[in-house]
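Ops channel
N.P.: pipeline sanity check, posting one input/output pair.
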């Protein structure tokens, strides 16, 4: 095929037919474009006869959410495909299988997960995922530990840091999460009903200090190879299965950023449940499920990370120094709490929101959910460096819920 250009449906089918052995001889393929969000073209290709299918994801040279005025590197397709393959090796069964990567077309061909549901929508629908906490904590513990200075050769890790330099997508994160919400940015977007709360963020010096510290860690602390955008919209799930997708924001950064993103999105759904479950008793029961899931995610991650540390640590001094692992885990917890808060704030006042709250049709309920999310998020940011237990998150959430 020719040099890079956005694919048509017919061209996507042509590429699929050229994948030796994937589709049966004589396959009759159909193709439709499906939306993945803000940055890419995604095609779903199916053989009408056998039912076999795959997904093609092509990076666009601009942010689709804004248009060609916001150019983006196509190298993010390489980053995504290589990260998926690393994740597949470290956390088998928890990510889609990559069948092919075409660097010229910035195209990744991968497993079709149509039998799964985007977890964000599942939670909005009130679906429970009993294995999610175990699955996602395994995914994070293994992908973060084995790409860190403790789980791999430290010189090879430095080379991998260079391999996953991702300045353009990191710049999006740096601006949308750690800068825009705390200033009068044209990128911000919020309901007029919460203008007072949005403007208060711009004048809160102590809060901005904590955000500045979190941002500095994001900029400089290359602890491990992150997914970089690990929210419930980047997870396909069923009650029995969890698949993490879309790691195009991958780069080396602080581990707590990934863990905090998971927790933040569970809490955003918690806030949105003021609308999605009308019965008060059922709503509180589902909210308790979400909080229990958060506890299980952190506890599962910590237990598994500690076990990997004890069994696989390549750093002699870190492994032997009394108290160092406890110190390290507490740092990850504090970062997790702070980044969870920052993720929540940006989803209420920043450029890209979440369906858990934005799709609430009743203005009063939507405002209530937005204010609750901001109350939880800002308090997580304020208290992150003084936290020592995941129970601190529960205390913050329950206090804000009563408020």
């Amino acid at each position: 095929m020719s040099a890079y250009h956005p694919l048509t449906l017919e061209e996507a089918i042509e590429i699929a037919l050229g994948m030796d052995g994937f589709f049966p001889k004589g396959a009759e393929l159909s193709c439709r474009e499906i939306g993945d969000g803000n940055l890419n073209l995604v095609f779903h290709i199916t053989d009408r006869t056998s039912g076999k299918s795959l997904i093609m994801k092509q990076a666009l040279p601009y942010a689709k959410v804004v248009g060609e005025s916001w150019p983006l590197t196509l190298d993010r397709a390489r980053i995504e495909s290589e990260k998926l393959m690393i994740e597949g090796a470290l956390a088998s069964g928890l990510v889609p299988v990559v069948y092919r990567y075409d660097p010229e077309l910035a195209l990744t061909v991968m497993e079709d997960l149509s039998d799964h549901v985007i977890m964000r929508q599942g939670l909005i629908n009130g679906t429970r995922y009993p294995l999610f906490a175990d699955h996602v904590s395994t995914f994070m513990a293994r992908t973060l530990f084995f790409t860190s200075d403790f789980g791999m050769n430290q010189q090879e890790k430095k080379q991998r840091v260079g391999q996953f330099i991702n300045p353009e997508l990191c710049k999006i994160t740096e601006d949308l999460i750690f800068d825009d919400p705390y200033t009068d940015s044209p990128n911000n977007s919020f309901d007029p009903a919460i203008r007072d709360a949005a403007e208060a963020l711009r004048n809160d010096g102590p809060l901005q200090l904590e955000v500045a510290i979190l941002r500095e860690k994001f900029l400089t602390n290359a602890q491990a190879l992150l997914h970089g955008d690990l929210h419930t919209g980047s997870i396909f799930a069923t009650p029995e299965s969890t698949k993490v997708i879309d790691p195009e924001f991958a780069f080396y950064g602080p581990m707590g950023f990934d863990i905090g993103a998971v927790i933040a999105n569970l809490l955003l759904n918690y806030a949105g449940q003021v609308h999605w479950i009308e019965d008060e008793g059922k709503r509180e029961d589902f909210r308790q499920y979400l909080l229990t899931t958060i506890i299980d995610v952190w506890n599962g991650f910590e237990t598994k990370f500690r076990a990997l540390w004890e069994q696989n640590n390549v750093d002699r001094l870190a492994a032997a120094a009394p108290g160092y692992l406890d110190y390290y885990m507490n740092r990850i917890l504090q970062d997790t709490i702070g980044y969870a808060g920052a993720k929540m704030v940006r989803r209420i006042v920043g450029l890209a929101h979440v369906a858990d709250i934005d799709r609430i049709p009743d203005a009063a309920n939507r405002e209530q959910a937005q204010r609750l999310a901001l109350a939880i998020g800002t308090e997580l940011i304020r208290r992150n460096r003084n936290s020592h237990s995941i129970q601190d998150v529960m205390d913050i959430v329950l206090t804000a819920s009563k408020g």
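N.P.: looks fine end to end. The chain has two domains: 9-111, 117-402.
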